[in-house]
Design a protein that fits this description.
Number of strands: 2
Number of domains: 2
Helix content: over 70%
Shape: globular
Structural class: mainly alpha
Radius of gyration: 28 Å
Amino acid sequence: MKKSKKIKFEKENTFFDRIKRKISDSFYVFSQRLYAKTHKNDAGKTRSMSSARRMDLIFYGTMIAIPILQWCIFYFAVNFNSFFLAFKQYSATGAYDWVGFENFRRVWADLTLKNSNLQNAFFNSLVAYGLSVLTQPLTIFLPYYIYKKMHGHEFFKVLLFLPSVLSGMVMCLLYQYVVDKVIPHIMLSYFNVEIPALLSETSTRFWAAWFYGFWFGLGGGVLLYTGTMSRIPVSVVEYAQLDGCGPFREFIYITFPLIFPTVSTFVILGFTDIFTGQLNLFTFFGTNSASVQTVGYYLYREVIASSGFDRYPYASSLGLFFTVFVAPLTILLRHVLNKVLPTVDY
């Protein structure tokens, strides 16, 4: 018994424990001094409150400055020239001339023209988003199965998260080999059913690419959803179980309402992905997938596969056109989701 106490004492007095204790003591002394400055006496209560308010504003300003600075650098500064290119046209002399809203008229014409490349790309992006919404219950049930530690939960956790650990390029190459070579060979050899190479064939390329994105995204969903579910108070779950609540009813009435903010985040991010996502088509095919496109891939090809600078103004106007429409629609979608089920604090 004495020996165990001695071992515990030695563990608590390691170098790192002493450093950790000194840091925690320093924070405690700092908080005490800060409290003493802002709460000296009742006579200086107004001044203390103003000091505390000023410190809150400084802290808030410091925290909000980080995302604002990030937006200014990685969006505004990077796209600064694109704003002007949207109103210009590349001339034969090698210069850009102002053409007003001519590029936007071309964008609208391509969107309304039947069977145009842009219209087909927009339709494919909408279908991909609709499929992601329809499969959202599966992406929630799998983390819930792991969160409840049901049979084989550790195996499924590793299986679903493994693709996110490996390199995206390696996973694309493996997936392309499996769906183009292995699966057709198995179906022909064992079931005498001949199927095409799923990614190489135009008729099945979109579905094969979408399934890869869905499968690859399950790992991140498992990580985020299980983390959110683990924050649910144990007392709430135990109280429900004492009342005879089974796993299904627990999910419907307790788990899902408490994780709805995370669900709505995925739905909103998926909506913005309509105008930016490219279903890993560039990773699979480079610029050689003109037959099957999404909006993000279409924009990529406009810039990468163009022979000169003549397509840059059109791509800039298309990006700006979608930005103007996507921003208010995203805010509206967030407002609607919050109205359907407001955020729950726990």
